Amino acid sequence: MLALCLRRAQGGGMLLALLGWISSCVTTFVPLWKNLNLDLNELEVWNMGLWQVCITQEEGVVECQAHGSFLALPPELRISRLLMCLSNGLGLLGCLLAALGLEGWRTCEDKPGRKQQLLLGGGATLGMAGITTLVPVSWVAYNTVLDFWDETVPDIVPRWEFGEATFLGWFAGAFLASGGLLLACSSRATSTAMPLAPACHQRPAAPGLPGGHHLHPKNADLVI
């Protein structure tokens, strides 16, 4: 019963981790971090991502242009690029480590301690991937809110709002962190449920003779 619960917990953790990693990769590259609707030209919608800016027209035509220079970007976008790429790498590494430590795989079956270490390492790596996803998404969202409510900017000036990738990034970070936590907890439960190795029994000593002398095993059958 305990083994079945452990497998279900590990399966749920891996499913959350994979969903979070895929969502994080999509969040990194889609140009939907910010949206801008122009009141003067309602036929165009501007979308901004970490790598490019796109304009969607009413006819469905989408025109995208990459950011000119990495150094010319705002600090939050520059650091968000690095953190999101780091999150994608950590998520992939965490999924591979955790997969090798699952109960259903035949890897390291003769070394249960090694499987526990792989599962724990994978869970910790996935947790770090979740944090490195939540930090840049939350930072960009925070600056978007500050710019939106900036009273020094005239009301006639259009303002950026949250894009779909912002919410997807929050879900991705939560999935990665939750999956890593489940996998790490299941590794600790695996160690407690692991059966103990049988104790080594010593060969009984040969019967002793009066006077404190002991018989050699070869001569023990001579004394009756």
UniProtKB/TrEMBL annotation:
Chief place of localization: other
Keywords of the record: Cell junction, Cell membrane, Membrane, Tight junction, Transmembrane, Transmembrane helix
Superkingdom of origin: Eukaryota
Annotated TM spans: 12-33, 79-102, 118-142, 162-184
GO terms for MF: structural molecule activity
Membrane topology note: Multi-pass membrane protein
GO cellular component, one term: plasma membrane
Function text: Claudins function as major constituents of the tight junction complexes that regulate the permeability of epithelia.
Protein's name in the database: Claudin
Organism lineage string: Eukaryota, Metazoa, Chordata, Craniata, Vertebrata
